[in-house]
Amino acid sequence: MAQKPRAWQRMLSGRRLDLLDPTPVDVEIEDIAHGLAFVARWNGQTRGDYAYSVAEHSLLVETIFARIAPRAPAKWRLAALLHDAPEYVIGDMISPVKAAVGPDYRALDERLTTAVHVRFGLPASLPVRVKQQIKKADRVSAWMEASQIAGFSEAEATRFFGRPDAALMEGLSILLRPPVEVRAEFTERHAALLREMA
C-alpha cells in the first residue's frame, strides 16, 4: 500500500506544521521571522551582497502601510507586517509561477494566512479596505525593489506596479542586510505591535 506523502514541516521551534490543515498552535513568530529572513524575493535575482529577504520586504511594507493609513490601529500594522507570512513555509513564488500553479497555491496561502492571523489575534479574514491598503503598500515596495535592485528600469517597474506617490517613499531605501539582523528586527517589530495591541 502506497504511503501518503508527508504534508507537514518540522520547524526549528519543534512545532510540526501541517500544510493541509495548519493550526494556530503550531505557528511561532520565531519560525516565521527565521524563515522569511532566509527567503529571497525576486528568486534571488537582485543586486548586492545579500539576498533581499521577504522579512526585509515585510518591514518595508509595514512602514509604507503606516504612511498610507496613518491612523490605522496596531492590529492592521501587524497584518501588514505579516502579509507574506505563509512564505516562511512555501517560499516566495514570483507572480508568473503563482499564475501557473493556479488556485491550489491560493488555497494553501489562505489556509496558512488564517492560522497565522488567528495565532496573533487578527481576524481570519481582513476587512477589504485594509487588504487594499496593504496591497498598495506591497506594490510601492515592489516598485522600489524592482527599480533599485532587481534590474528593472523605472519605466518598466511603473508598467508592472504603477508609479508610486513619491511621498510614500520619501526617506526610504532598500536595505540589504545579513539574515540574522533582519530576523531580529522582524521579531522585535512584531513584539512592539503586539504590545500596542494589548
From TrEMBL:
It comes from the Bacteria. The keyword Membrane does not apply. InterPro entries: HD/PDEase_dom, HD_domain. Keywords: Hydrolase. Pfam families: HD (PF01966). The keyword Zinc does not apply. It comes from Sulfitobacter faviae. Residues 50-152 form the HD/PDEase domain. This is HD family hydrolase. GO terms for molecular function: hydrolase activity.
